[in-house]
Design brief:
With about 280 residues, the protein is an alpha/beta fold. The protein has 10 helices and 7 strands. Strands 1, 2, 3, 4, 5, 6 and 7 form a 7-stranded mixed β-sheet that branches. The longest helix has 21 residues. It is elongated and about 75 Å long. Bound molecules: guanosine-5',3'-tetraphosphate. Required for a late step of 50S ribosomal subunit assembly. Has GTPase activity.
């Protein structure tokens, strides 16, 4: 689940992406609905200019529904087509198909004016590691198609999946790398489990998450762990350790275990649907 980035990976991934994107009419960009900005890479706007664009708010099932709506409005107002999706269950995939059809219309109209007829629209899925690209492609293709090739450095011939008579999808997703330099981005990606916890200590990460949840989703921790949401974040984590019997030898509290438990509950949606970023109001 965790990914690690090395400069070599990034360069290779970028090169592959630049090569593949030339062949593409429509870029389907997956972001994590819980952190839609932190899981985006701004380079995609440059890479995808002059292409039709569709943003998929993936893992929408784990994100706050009201915030999904805010993000829908946000990206729509920027001129993107936007769809909320749960790739694991396949919900929202029909809307994606419709979005692709709309993009097709534009493309076919352009082609028609240039005298090109019946050329299928070619689409490519892009996004940061672990955002759900393979799961999404499989849901859209309605079969398991992505095996290898979804890792930098693993090469295989380009293959196109025929979605219908108008659309072809590249079976190898384009890998984008997140903007690690921004501290908040690093934190957000660590929360959702996309980068190794070691970047921050697990306990430290849990304290940040507790601060966020108590401030924005008050009562959630109290209900889940039958604790009082009072005091500092370390006191709350101690209560979670007590509730979950996270103990070391000699009955000392195992704070690291409690932190991992909390992060795991959050990442798997067991704390309910929580979104970490909201669009800025301008
Ligand atoms: P990638 O190709 O972009 O690297 O991502 P991939 O499809 O491998 O998905 C990464 C993880 O995210 C997988 O979980 C996958 O099941 C999960 N996932 C993808 N889309 C969704 C979604 O819309 N909702 C939810 N809840 N999860 C999603 P995993 O823990 O690595 O494996 P597993 O739990 O499926 O076994």
């Amino acid at each position: 689940m965790h990914f690690q980035w090395y400069p070599g990976h990034m360069t290779k991934a970028k090169r592959m992406m630049q090569e593949n994107i030339k062949l593409i009419d429509l870029v389907i960009e997956l972001v994590d609905a819980r952190v839609p900005l932190s899981s985006r890479n701004p380079d995609i706007d440059e890479l995808g200019k002059n292409k039709s664009r569709l943003i998929v708010l993936n893992k929408a099932d784990l994100a706050d529904e009201k915030k999904n709506d805010l993000w829908y409005e946000h990206f729509t107002s920027q001129g993107f087509m936007v769809v909320s999706v749960n790739s694991k269950k396949g919900s929202g995939i029909k809307m994606v198909e419709q979005g692709i059809q709309n993009a097709c219309k534009e493309k076919m109209e352009k082609d028609r004016k240039r005298g090109i007829l019946n050329r299928p629209v070619r689409a490519m899925v892009v996004g940061i590691p672990n955002v759900g690209k393979s799961t999404f492609i499989n849901a859209l293709a309605k079969k398991s198609v992505t095996k290898t090739g979804n890792k930098p450095g693993v090469t295989k011939g380009k293959q196109w999946i025929r979605l219908n008579k108008n659309v072809e999808l590249l079976d190898t997703p384009g890998i984008l790398w997140p903007k690690f330099e921004d501290q908040q981005v690093g934190l957000d990606l660590a929360f959702i489990g996309s980068i190794k916890d070691e970047i921050l200590q697990t306990e430290e990460l849990a304290y940040h998450l507790i601060d966020f949840i108590t401030a924005n989703y008050s009562g959630v921790l109290a209900k889940k762990y039958e604790i009082k949401e009072e005091g500092k974040s370390y006191e709350i984590l101690e209560q979670i350790a007590v509730n979950r019997h996270a103990l070391l030898r000699g009955n000392e509290l195992d704070i690291r275990k409690a932190a991992m438990l909390l992060l795991d509950d959050f990442r798997n949606g067991r704390l309910g649907r929580i979104t970490l970023e909201v669009p800025e109001v301008v």
